[in-house]
Amino acid sequence: MDTAKKIKTALISVFYKDKLDQIVKKLDTLGVSIYSTGGTQKFIEGEGIDVTAVEQLTDYPSILGGRVKTLHPKVFGGILGRRENNHDQEQMSQYNIPEIDLVIVDLYPFEETVASDASSQEIIEKIDIGGISLIRAAAKNYKDVLVVSSRNQYDELIALLETKKGTTTIEERKTFAREAFNVSSHYDSHIFDHFDDNNGSALKISVQESKKLRYGENPHQQGFFYGKLNDMFDQIWGREISYNNLLDIDAAVNLISDFEETTFAVLKHNNACGIASRDNLTQAWKDALAGDPVSAFGGILVTNQNIDLATAEEMNKIFFEVSIAPGYDDDALEVLKQKKNRIILVHKKPGLQKNIVRTVLNGFIAQDRDVKTETPEELNVVTNNNPKDDQIEDLLFANKLVKHTKSNAIVLAKGKQMIASGVGQTSRVDALKQAIQKAKSFDFDLNEAVMASDAFFPFSDTVQIAGEAGITAVIQPGGSKRDQDSIDYCNEHNMSMVTTGYRHFKH
């Protein structure tokens, strides 16, 4: 059986007209008969090319304000009719249904309309009915029909028409059909998500853009990124971003988004190993690095300020993988570009998803992103000793960090500088001991330091260890049946404690 098909007829109905002039001129040169509707028909006629209105084919006008134009047996019969099926051919002849060999449809811009904060009625009118049906019909009958379902395929179609003179193979038609089902399923997913309005009745994830990564977490694993990274970042230098880079970049952007004053952070394996807030960016960098200059090697650097020359020169003294900032002075960029493999990113906007989705067992779990950051007014002082103003600043600073640190987590801070953290431990006591040991290894003075915990203390042992190390103020969610044990210890040892009512587990 000859699977090559010559395009003799085409149905065109598109929203966007980009490059459509090139397509219809090429089809006209090849002698292809064109059917069209509404604005597309007028556009083609404006190019001086013969076109038959769908209404002439169906003997039925466009009705209901254009909602019904192509939904007719003569249209769908011409698309779905099987060329090798004698019964289909007999019926097409009986009902005077012409074969349609090429379908070009570009759907109404539903996603874009929702994103533009349009009215409910405007959004509803951008739910394409005829277009999506035409795409599915043509893709289903790919053995006989070529379907072009997106303007992103116009260049490919033009090349095909030029090189193959209107003849396509079944492999080419199947490739276009696969993309058509990708387009239609993506379109329907976004319509469902709009109507579901975060009710969680079902999970629909559809992302059109994909990028194959060098590998996954390890070289023996394949990795992909699905999304529009260019919407969030401009990569202005460095090698290809890896799977692990993406995880770290995500953690870095989430962390820095919680800080308004000038802040610099260093991350390693998704956790901050150093961070400081200062009036001066260069000093913020130096104090962030001082938090753990060993772990900073090969780390991810992130700040919420443009990087100047002085800061870049200090950064350039260490090896790091990625730098993320809202911008870079030209002379600073020249310094950072001295190492060719460094990834340098300009962070354009937050762009973070509202929900977090993960695979678990044979399914998925989803939750809201933790965007809660406590304010001074929300702090509940539960001890006789009130924290001083500078301690409150440090407590809130540490509490932002502990939210972004893997549980069980403890963060120690002083002077809006993280001086140590305990990360991912199986007990809160172990997390604190790890943090204290780390702080001492870098010669930090723990006297007058503060401690943040991502969850409550079931016993007073953690607070006792903190107090013996010189820590004088504690922030924690509260809510344990034995909260009073920790409060009593603080009262007995001149420590202050505040509770927030918000737990910040990160598993």
Structure description:
This protein is α/β, with parallel strands linked by helices. The protein has three domains: 5-196, Methylglyoxal synthase-like domain (Rossmann fold); 228-347, AICAR transformylase, duplication domain (Cytidine Deaminase, domain 2, 3-Layer(aba) Sandwich), CATH 3.40.140.20; 377-499, Cytidine Deaminase, domain 2, CATH 3.40.140. 38% of the residues lie in helices and 20% in strands. It is built from 19 helices and 23 strands. The strands form six sheets. It has a six-stranded mixed beta sheet with strand order 10-15-14-13-11-12, with helices on both faces. Strands 18-23-22-21-19-20 form a six-stranded mixed beta sheet, sandwiched between helices. The chain is elongated, with a radius of gyration of 31 Å.
CATH architecture classification of the largest domain: 3-Layer(aba) Sandwich
Query: What is the 3D shape?
Result: elongated
Spatial strand arrangement across the major sheet: 10-15-14-13-11-12
The number of distinct helices, counting runs of at least 4 residues, comes to 19
Radius of gyration: 31 Å
| Chain-averaged pLDDT | 93
Specify the CATH homologous superfamily of the largest domain. Methylglyoxal synthase-like domain
In the residues, how many domains can be counted? 3
What structural category characterises the helix and strand content? alpha/beta
Low-confidence parts: none
Features:
507 residues, alpha/beta, Rossmann fold, Cytidine Deaminase, domain 2, 3 domains, 6-stranded mixed β-sheet, elongated
